[in-house]
Amino acid sequence: MTTTIGIIIAGLLILFLLTFIVFIARYKRCPSDKILVIYGKTGSGSAKCLAGGAAFVVPFFQAYEYLDLTPISIDVDLRGALSKQNIRVNVPSRFTVAISNQDGIMLNAAERLLGKSKDQIRDIAKDIIFGQLRLVVATMDIEEINSDRDKFLTNVSTNVGAELRKIGLSLINVNVTDIQDESGYIEALGKEAAAKAINDAKMSVAEKNRDGSIGEAKANKDKRIQVSSADADAQIGEAEADAKSIDGANEAAIKIALSNAERQVKEAEALRLATAAEKIQKAKSLEEAYLAEKEAEQARAAREQATREADIIVHAEINKRKAEIDAEAEAEQNRRLAKGEADAIYLKREAEARGMYEILSRQAEGFEKIVQAAGGNSRDAILMLIADKLETLVEKQVEAIKNIKIDKVTVWDGGSGNGSGEQAGSTAKFVSGLYKSIPPLSDLFNMAGMNLPQYLGTPETLAVENGINPPSNNKVEDTIEES
User: Fold this and answer.
1) Integer Cα distance of 208 and 202 in angstroms
2) CB within 8 A of 251, min separation 6: which ones?
């Protein structure tokens, strides 16, 4: 009894230990860089997703896998995408995506990406990014794509992110390396901006040089005026000193007058030089400004010309492609019509051949039965066929002279008789000869390479029965005149 209880207790301990080991083995913890996907009988949709934490996986009813949250870098070298202006643009860029750990989106990743390698996920995301990037480029002008990069990236992130979330991915970063177009439109815009900046700088430098020249001229003018004033004051002082002497007063007055005159002349010269320098500098500034405006207009004209050429080339390419497609469609239609006609002719000829073959086969079977009915004698079989058509042959003989129209017959009958033998008249001979012009049955049989059967009679007996004298060598000398 004690032994039995000990065995039961040991069995329970072993069972408990095994249950504990199984529980520990099936209790799965999810790392922070992965998503734990439990599938099977979960009671909450197709799968249960955990981003972090832990869960117990029921044996036999549930299984599990992990989805890696490591970011995936995708190089997208978009070439020849049509913009809103129908100008092809190259947009090389790099996208960084990863499996999303947001509720709802994780389930999409579990349903569509579970069990796929990183390269397979990259290929799927790349196809989606290519399509959405082309769509964004098609809705924007080149000026917007080139100047407003924030708007372009926002549109790309919105469109691409929405599509990626459908398969359980999230867009982390978008980096557009460079934007180029095949027609050189963006390059022309850059040259225009550079030319405008250079022209503005040149105008600013010219204005500063002009202000410096004017200030220098004014300083020189003030300097000359002050020097002249100082000289005049000195001379005046000397004149006042010498004014004590009556003779020196006149000389001082003369010197003062001369000094004043020289001072006025120098002031006028300084003013003239300053005015001339100002006008020259102003003319140079205007000239540089005009040159800058000319270059800007040339750049603008080049840009407009490039735009027109791009539009013409695009429309021409579209028309060319349309003409090629129409020509190919027409050629394909002609080929199909010709093939249909050829098939119809072939079927018609084949049907005719089958019909002819059937007719000849039936005729051969009929001839074979006729030969069998004639006891296997082919000659008797042919005679049977001719006998079957004898009535028709006689009818055709009669028809040969039935419709002959003789308007007038003139006969010079030089003899008399009873209408038979050599004493017969020429009229009787004419009628007899006319009837003898019909081929007799014996001749028809002879032309067929056969002899008339005895039961149909000999040529002489047939002639007598028909009321015709046997053929003779006498020549008819009658003259028949038709009018």
Assistant:
1) 10
2) 239, 242
The number of beta carbons lying within 10 Å of the beta carbon of residue 178 is: 9
Which residue matches tokens 């000389």?
251
The percentage of residues in the chain with a pLDDT greater than 70, rounded to a whole number, is: 72
Q: Pull the structure tokens for residue 32.
A: 């922070």
In this structure, how many other beta carbons lie within 10 angstroms of the beta carbon of residue 35?
Answer: 23
What's the chain's Rg over C-alpha atoms? 63
Separation between Cα atoms, residue 474 and residue 477, nearest integer Å = 9
Tell me the pTM: 0.39
What's the token pair of residue 15?
């069972």
DSSP designation for 419:
S
pLDDT tens sequence across 150-193 = 888 888 889 999 999 999 999 999 888 777 776 565 655 555 55
In whole angstroms, give the CA distance from residue 95 to residue 114: 21
- CA 187, distance to chain mean position in Å, is 29
- Under 8 Å between Cβ of 218 and 226: no
Of the CA atoms within 13 Å of residue 127, those in its CB half-sphere come to 6
Q: Which residues make beta-bridge pairs with 160? A: none
Contact 267, 227 (CB under 8 A): no
Residue pair 118/107 in contact by the 8 Å Cβ criterion:
no
Rounded to an integer, what distance in angstroms lies between the CA atom of residue 28 and that of residue 15? 22
List pLDDT tens digits, range 441-470: 566 566 555 565 555 555 555 555 455 454
pLDDT digits 0-9 by tens, 297-355:
888 888 888 888 878 888 888 888 888 888 888 888 888 888 888 888 988 888 888 88
Who's near 107: CB < 8 A, 6+ residues apart? 45, 46, 47, 49, 168
